[in-house]
Amino acid sequence: RQRGGAVAEPGRAGGQPVGNMSAGGTGGQHESVPYDGEVPPPETDEEGGVLPDYGDVRYDETERGGHEEPGLPSGFNDKDAGVSNEFLAPVERELMYYLMRYGEYDLIFDEDLLYGKKQEEKLTVFQYVSAQMEEDGLEFRNGIYRRMFLLYASESASADRSGGDVSKVQERIQRVFINNADQELSQAALDLIIQKYNITIDKFNKALTPEDNILGRLIPEAVLRYKAKIVDWEYNKTAAELGRMQKEKADFESQMRLMQSLQMYMKMKNRLAGELAKY
To answer: Interior CA angle at 131 toward 5 and 179, to 5°?
Structure first.
């Protein structure tokens, strides 16, 4: 398996693991984490609402040395663009940006990220992203990006690559999106295709390398950010549920299960933060 790590499927009750998720990323079944003290409920605002806990995974541009994330289509608000989960929207949008612009390009991983190993198989950007999501049972939670992803998968599977020019293949897929009868989808795709995606000076100024030449670093990093954000989401949701149970004095066994899940998610947050730090 290439880099990326496994995560829990959003929406599973009680933070149940799926696929080969484990806090250590070893691919085995999740083992119970011994209880080592009460996990406090999440912070709340003045009205009692749960405040997000981002743990050790941060998304501030100056800290992660990344690049600005694509904005929503111009003139759209979140509801218009089929965005129902604002927490996950930025990372879903980022992945769709890369698919719309480079989905059919070969993904050549940086040698320093392979730790001396040879790349075992040749993958396109779309094949890598799709495999990472499928492996962990993940799908986009926002309607606009989910529709775009499914359409892209269909077009990629039937694309004519006989000419050998990958840029032409990518352009044909882009035209399918731009000319789509679904105006919401068409506009969202157009904005991603023409958008300038800025690379931070600190990270790439010396190389002055075009974006398509560093996909082997950018794509795994984007996938890691996506998975880290999902773990954050699951952690916050589980913490809120635990806070509710403690307030209502629910049975201890149910609280224990959520405490164990929180400990598991925290380990995953730390591991993914460590992976992202390598970029």
So the answer is: 130
